[in-house]
Amino acid sequence: MIKNTDVENNLTVINPEITEVIDKISGAILPVKEIIGSDYDKVIKLRVELLTFIKRNEPRYICPLCHTPVYLVCRHKTRHFFCRHTIDDGRCTVDTRGNMSEAEINARKYNGAKESEAHKQMKKIIAESLKADGRFKDIAIEQVWKSQEHGEWKKPDVYAIFDDRIRIVFEIQLSTTFLRVIVERKEFYLKEGGLLCWIFKEIKEEYPRLMQDDIFYNNNCNLFLASEETLHVSNKQKRLFLKCCWFEPVIENQEIVNTWKNEIVPFDQLTFDHEQQRIFFFDYDCEKHKLTQQLARERFEQFWLSNNSNLDLDEISQELQELIDFFSKHNILLFTQYDLHNDGLTSLLNALYSAKYGKPIGYKFRKLIQIAHQMENGHKKYLKIFGWALRIYGRDEQIKREDSSGKWANKVDKFRPLMQSNDEKYQHDGSFDQFISFLFPELAERLGKL
Ligand SMILES: [Zn+2]
């Protein structure tokens, strides 16, 4: 939350040299305007406090770039404040930061935040949680990991070997955004064959923001937290537990929306995706893909059921276009391959939906048995899959009931041997198999065997 930064009477000087500080306790990077604020009494108190902390050698705020403690100075004329380094020996590049790359600035800020109390506390919690679980060996805090090839090195917060084979590092993220650091670390451990697991202290609100987004969305929408609570569970169960927060997609009003979930989960139940450096509990991508397919299937069905008897391009073009857009947005490129006006496809879809709903779809018939006759008369190449659909959707009894004259039973007696001997007329036409498998997943397996 940003306080007092934009209000007119903020007591910060215009264009201060130091614009941000690192809070040594929380590890947060705070805008100077936020810590100064607009309350004169408060800022005077803060000024005394900061100097007291520095005297005790426990500085509260440090410069994000050079990590030197800073204190507040008041400009006499305007009674406005700014931050100044306790040691100004030119080591800080705060005034020449234009020469520093963003990556370097970020790396410095990141390392500064690592010196905070909160960060130290987190390292301890993680290391102790690992010690509770006998499968973690060689547990080490801030041990240098040297690259064999490039002379590069990293100092992960916590390192361990899991199950005698997975070299895993835990990196703590406290509160701000360090996308470059994240990407760079991911690349480093990927090259080195190590697995990187980001750990958070807390998540503000129910929704991951800022830095968390970068890790969150790149980690299959899962992120992990460690705390006294997870340490307690780990100790009790002698097995590493972390709190996982994740998005679970659900369909609501024909849209996929994300719901926020969290649970304390055992580490050994997580999926390790070395290639993409992902560790997750819930497979968001997979579930979302499934739901997207389901949604597309439902949309198509709705469209078909309401339009099939009147498939006139002009009248339904807008609706059809929306459907096509939806499919292409989700990379389901079926409409580019199929002509919905193709008589064979239309008949096949009508027959299968008829079987599914137990009533004629797309024909002005009254009974399902009439569809069966229609298929045998005009679309023998789809009779096998139609017959299978009748079975899958539990329509066999209905067909028997509707066949009071026994005509259908007679037909079946005639064509069954032909089908069994692979008569050409009854050979399944697989032109639309892919589309049918998509729309009727319950038939997919059978289609492959026809
Ligand atoms: Zn500095």
From TrEMBL:
Residues 347-442 form the DUF7829 domain. Signal peptide: none annotated. Residues 109-284 form the DUF6035 domain. Residues 27-98 form the DUF7830 domain. This is Competence protein. It comes from Candidatus Thiomargarita nelsonii.
